[in-house]
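Collaborator request, handled under Task 6.
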Amino acid sequence: MSEKIGVMVCGHGSRDGGAVTEFAQVAKGLRKLMPDMPVEYGYLEFATPIIREGLDKLRDQGVTRILAVPGMLFAAGHVKNDIPSVLNTYAAQNDDVTIELGKDLGIDPKVMHAAGARIQQSLDAAGDDVPLDETLLVVVGRGASDPDANGNVAKVMRLLWEGFGFGWGETVYSGVTFPLVEPGLEHVAKLGFKRIIVFPYFLFTGILVDRIYEHTDRVAARYPGIEFIKASYLNDHPQVIETFKERVEQILTGDTAMNCGGCKYRTQVLGFEDQVGLAQESHHHHVEGIGTGAAHSHDHDDDHSHGNGHDHAHHPYPHADHPLGPKTLK
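Structure tokens returned to the collaborator:
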């Protein structure tokens, strides 16, 4: 029996219909770049199709080898635990297919070019009356209970800061860790820069991106002498789609190893020593398929229910009571 290869893009999911629509565009973009392979997608929670349904669609098309890629920027708990757990469970129940998981997008030159393009678009719209050395960049990460993933956002900020030549750069987060957007912007507003660019380092829109912009507006209203610019998130920039394609191709060449040097599940990271070797399991079964609109009947305050600094039944975050976070934006 000949092997038939298919691609599965595994997303987190959102209660925001716009985010779900934008994520689907990634699969459509990959289909155009990889016309010889069936491409499907699915979500861990809050939206349909769920990952299992996407895998079923590939099997229905005769696929016997599934190349799965995380539809996420960095490898935190979802990429390290939740998605592998779902895929392993499915593979164990369906011995007619093999499933291989690729790497997260990570800090890739193509994604950095996409990020730079979004920032440049915001600069072009604002005008060139403020020099770059009098402009401060704030990169907003999703925020995770994994310091390795949070550190990657800080590295992205540094690369963009230095690449553009901004006067200063800071990193804030939308939840789970610290500092949150509003206290972070309050801090940078006191540094004396004429212009502050707020860039959500997110793939897609959603409740949290909306809240990032809302919190930016709150701080901007308190500092009328500073120009606040809200840059767009990454979305389906062509370079982002190209990076997804590369992650699929890397599975075929065997280049799927993630950088685990700072992974809290594999090494004793300062402050997270008790999480080494935790069982790999998904915590999203109770919200699989719960979608947007009328179909949504599960009460959550945000895309990920991190209101208390933890995600579902995950190991408690050690700094949950930090005064600058880590409650998710409200």
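The cover message to the collaborator said: "The CA atoms of residues 135 and 191 lie 11 Å apart. Residues 109-230 form a domain with the Rossmann fold fold (CATH 3.40.50.1400). Please let us know whether this matches your experimental observations."
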